[in-house]
Design brief:
Layout (H helix, E strand, L loop, with lengths): L5 H25 L4 H21 L5 H17 L7 H13 L11 H7 L3 H12 L4 H8 L6 H13 L8 H14 L5 H10 L4 H24 L3 H15 L9 H9 L11
Length: about 270
């Protein structure tokens, strides 16, 4: 059974495209030095960034806000190098990869588990489970192949709920991956019905499903805690406005500009210091 339903993709394509097109327009305007457009662009990613920095130990809102501003200032400086929304999100991914956890352990049980994740899994946790990014956006930002993403997400869920998929037989593991996709809402009603029928007596698949549904409730509550208030959002944008005016944008040379039109790979080394 195909993990990526064409029916699902077609149904959601128009709304996703419209949203990405609006974001792309903001990137183009902001790349010309228009801070108002950059502030609108930044607001779209504040909750995502808040969520990521929380997963590496920035529980204190002031510390978290400071890290968010630092990263967005870096995004502002090198924004002219980005041409697409996926470029911008890829740049964020690579910048977050450099951010070390503030602490290696926590007295907060929920955070303790998140601190054990690697960068890719933290990024996927926040972008998919908190912010509902599309599979395409996930693949473009992380460079995970589309065919591999269902398995990667299944293993992430397994880490979070203490499930051990590597102990299963190949066919059992495949069914658990299908259940994971079902829980993502990725399948048609017909596909969902077939899988539900197939796993009625499958202990491991049913256990995975039950454990993830229970843990997902915890994630919803955690996400509500992490989300920024309107007041905090306004304060971050105000501070960001002050900070970016102290930094000039880096302009790519023509040859680099043309290369990035094809593939977003040419970024100055200074961006990663």
């Amino acid at each position: 059974m195909a993990l990526f339903s064409k029916t699902y993709e077609a149904t959601h394509l128009s709304s996703i495209t419209a949203s990405r097109n609006a974001t792309r327009k903001l990137i183009r305007k902001a790349s010309k030095g228009k801070f108002h457009a950059f502030s609108q662009l930044s607001v779209q990613y504040l909750d995502f960034l808040s969520g990521y920095f929380y997963t590496i130990g920035y529980v204190d809102i002031e510390q978290r806000s400071e890290e968010i501003i630092k990263l967005l200032v870096k995004c502002w400086r090198y924004l002219p190098y980005t041409k697409r929304v996926s470029d911008f999100e890829r740049f964020i991914y690579t910048q977050l990869e450099k951010a070390p956890p503030l602490t290696k352990s926590s007295n907060l049980p929920q955070l303790e588990k998140l601190l054990q994740l690697d960068h890719l899994n933290r990024f996927l946790l926040v972008s998919r489970f908190f912010e509902k990014w599309s599979y395409k956006a996930l693949c473009l930002s992380t460079r995970v192949e589309k065919r591999d993403l269902p398995n990667v997400l299944m293993h992430l869920k397994s880490k979070l709920i203490g499930f051990r998929p590597n102990m299963l037989k190949t066919d059992e593991k495949a069914r658990v991956t299908l259940v994971s996709e079902l829980l993502e809402g990725r399948l048609t009603k017909k596909e969902t019905h077939l899988i539900e029928k197939e796993i009625t007596s499958e202990y491991h698949s049913l256990q995975f499903k039950a454990d993830w549904l229970e843990y997902r409730c915890e994630l919803v509550e955690l996400n509500q805690t992490i989300k920024l208030s309107e007041i905090t959002t306004s304060q971050i944008i105000e501070r960001l406005s002050h900070n970016v005016r102290q930094h000039q944008m880096e302009k790519p040379k023509l040859i680099i500009n043309l290369a990035n039109h094809i593939s977003f790979k040419r970024i100055p080394a200074e961006a990663y210091l």
